[in-house]
Design goal:
The structure holds two protein chains of two kinds. By secondary structure, chain A is mainly alpha-helical. Chain A has two domains: 29 residues, no CATH class; 212 residues, MetI-like fold (Orthogonal Bundle). Chain A has 13 helices and two strands. Chain A has a two-stranded antiparallel ribbon. In chain A, helix 3 runs parallel beside helix 8 and helix 3 crosses helix 12. The longest helix of chain A is centred in the N-terminal third of the chain and has 33 residues. The two termini of chain A are 21 Å apart. Chain B is α+β, with helices and mostly antiparallel strands. Chain B folds into two domains: 226 residues, 3-Layer(aba) Sandwich (Rossmann fold); 96 residues, Nucleic acid-binding proteins (OB fold (Dihydrolipoamide Acetyltransferase, E2P)). Chain B contains ten helices and 19 strands. In chain B, a hairpin with a 3-residue loop joins strand 14 and strand 15. In chain B, helix 3 packs across helix 4. Chains A and B meet through helix 9 and helix 10 of A and strand 6 and helix 3 of B.
Chain lengths: 289, 333
């Protein structure tokens, strides 16, 4: 990008993709905004301007605050489990062991399973109070089996989602761990740091950037978790496991209220941006060189 | 105090012996240089002393105490790595102070020691910078600072100057030598550069394929190399070796003549040849001569000489400086 010509050329060459991307983003966003100000119900062929009514209804929905809380809990819980668990797993996988390649593939495998399938497996094979493996284990030791989705619906979903995302975190953190120079660890060892202090003062700061990447990417995906909620608890019991994405779905396709759902969608976008701003403030500086 | 003793140290990696059998005595306060070609095991030997590698067999003693099974932290040695291994997320101050922090030194003492080390190494103005904001030479000094703050029994240097440019290398060589004179602490220094070895060492240990070939002061090795390898490795440009009839005359399998002990003449001499490449260094000129039947030989002459490539010349050795070696490469005296 040295000369003026090459800069101009670069702009012209990039223009088509930028324009397509822009349309791709702007059109749905503008449509959503437009619908959110309309009285638009699938059961009623007449649409009309609604002003802020849709927003008012969505925000005063008894499930609204709870769903926002659930969304944040879900994101936070999964992040906590995957980052801590991912660091521990990455530390383990970094050790030279027999069959390292196979073990690594096994660890990554949950990431290859589609979310609804994974959720159904957890629901029916692991957490089912009648014939799930957890129930069997509990019975073997003489405990009352836990009815996971009735007693701890949100926590159960957090567990399932964390299980799916743990490999992603592990993989990114493992590669970061492997890029730490051996000499730095040895230097710390010579300086008299024991294993725990080497981890705190050398390894963890080195992982800071990778942890930031994990947190940012996962947050984007976790804000929109939907399939796991749909196939396991359907948002219940009550609204105990309804997150914002699921609430929008309920409004749009169970109440047929497109206007209200669009208002919810806009609120979700705003929420996502607020979270993003907080995240960039908190951990974004780790991304600077 | 900081004397280091190796007793029949053996190290192999996965059945492949890297150091067959090394015994060595390093006295307190000595500046010892391990020198040898790459892959000769000199770094491994240093890492064995540091405790970063386990010995396969043999004993390592520090001040007479057996430390073979102790970890690197408890040996009380400090090491400067080839890559410096500075902690990139810490400032210079934190880097230098890290060993003190790990030793739970109280804050005031630690701060004073870091300031002292920074002053000795001219780093006072850079204490709040991160390593990536420093030049190569400054990083090198930070690494040394990190080593000296804890007053170790001995310093271990692993090719510390190989990442610096030529001019800086000469400076750092002098700085490290001065540091040794100031601190009077044992230093063990690994390098593949025989110039560094010659200029810095009290005692040179020449290694080849994991074996200690010879131990001695720089001039001792220069004057009395124990074998052909040491003779060829110490001295620059390297020693000329002649075999066959030229050597038979001196009742040896091989004779060695240093370039500075070779005379060049247009008129007469012992071996005839033709001038090849001439390297003019200003103060000296090195001529590479194609000697008939003995291959390429190097001659060092003072000042400028006007031999042109292709000129027929004669070479003759200084009779008092001919090194004789037997069939197995050992020096004949």
């Amino acid at each position: 990008m040295a000369t003026r010509e090459s800069r101009t050329l670069a702009r012209i060459m990039m223009a088509p993709s930028v324009i397509v991307l822009l349309i791709w983003m702007i059109v749905p966003l503008v449509l959503t905004l437009w619908f959110s100000f309309q009285n638009y119900n699938l059961l009623n062929p007449i649409t009309s301007f609604a002003g802020l009514l849709n927003y008012q209804f969505f925000v005063t929905d008894p499930a609204f605050l709870q769903s926002i809380g659930n969304t944040l809990l879900l994101v936070g819980g999964v992040l906590l489990i995957t980052v801590v668990g991912g660091i521990l797993l990455a530390l383990l996988l970094d050790q030279p062991i027999f069959g390292q390649g196979i073990v690594r593939i096994l660890v990554i495998s949950p990431f290859f399973i589609m979310p609804p399938v994974a959720a159904l497996i957890w629901k029916n094979m692991l957490m089912h109070p009648g014939y799930g493996i957890f129930a069997r284990i509990a019975e073997t030791f003489g405990f009352q089996p836990v009815d996971w989705f009735a007693q701890f619906p949100l926590f159960s979903i957090i567990l399932i989602v964390a299980w799916q995302w743990l490999p992603f975190a592990t993989l990114i953190l493992l590669t970061a761990l492997q890029s730490l120079s051996e000499e730095q660890k040895e230097a710390a060892e010579m300086d008299g740091a024991n294993a725990l202090r080497r981890f705190i003062y050398i390894v963890l700061p080195h992982l800071a950037r990778a942890i930031t990447v994990v947190i940012l990417i996962q947050t984007i995906f976790l804000l929109g978790i939907f399939a796991e909620v749909l196939v396991t608890t359907n948002g219940g019991p009550g609204y105990n496991s309804t997150n914002l994405a699921f609430l929008v779905y309920r409004t749009a396709l169970l109440s047929f209220d497109v206007g209200g759902a669009s208002a919810g969608g806009v609120i979700a976008v705003i929420l996502a941006n607020i979270v993003a701003i907080f995240l960039m403030r908190a951990v974004g500086r780790n991304l600077d060189a | 105090m900081g004397s280091i003793t190796l007793e029949h140290v053996h190290k192999s990696f996965g059945g492949h012996p890297v150091i067959p059998d090394a015994s060595l005595q390093i006295e307190d306060g000595e500046f010892v240089v391990f020198v040898g070609p790459s892959g000769c095991g000199k770094s491994t030997l240093l890492r064995l002393i540091a405790g970063l590698e386990d010995t396969t067999s043999g004993i390592i003693r520090l001040d007479g105490e057996d430390v073979t099974d102790q970890g690197p932290a408890s040996r009380g040695l400090a090491m400067v790595f080839q890559s410096y291994a500075l902690y990139p997320h810490m400032t210079v101050r934190q880097n230098i102070g890290f060993p003190l922090k790990m030793a739970n030194t109280d804050k005031a003492t630690a701060e004073r020691k870091v300031a002292d080390a920074a002053r000795v190494l001219n780093l006072t103005d850079y204490l709040d910078r991160k390593p990536r904001e420093l030049s190569g030479g400054q990083r090198q000094r930070v690494a040394i600072g990190r080593a000296i703050v804890r007053q170790p029994k001995a310093f271990l240097f692993d090719e510390p100057l190989s990442n610096l440019d030529a001019a800086l290398r000469v400076n750092m060589r002098i700085e490290i030598t001065e540091l040794h004179q100031q601190l009077k602490t044992t230093m063990v220094y690994v390098t593949h550069d025989q110039v560094e070895a010659m200029t810095m060492a009290d005692k040179i240990v020449v290694l080849n394929a994991g074996r200690i070939e010879q131990v001695g002061s720089p001039m001792e090795l220069y004057r009395n190399p124990a074998n052909k390898f040491v003779a060829g490795f110490i001295g620059s440009p390297r020693m000329n070796f002649l075999e066959g009839p030229a050597a038979d005359k001196y009742r040896a399998a091989t004779i060695g003549v240093r370039p500075e002990h070779m005379r060049i003449s247009r008129e007469s001499g012992e071996w005839a040849g033709r001038v090849g490449v001439a390297e003019h260094l200003g103060s000296d000129t090195f001529f590479h001569i194609h000697v008939d039947g003995a291959g390429m030989q190097t001659v060092r002459t003072e000042g400028e000489k006007d031999f042109a490539p292709g000129d027929p010349v004669w070479l003759s050795p200084d009779p008092s400086h001919i090194y004789r070696f037997d069939q197995s490469g050992l020096a004949l005296r």
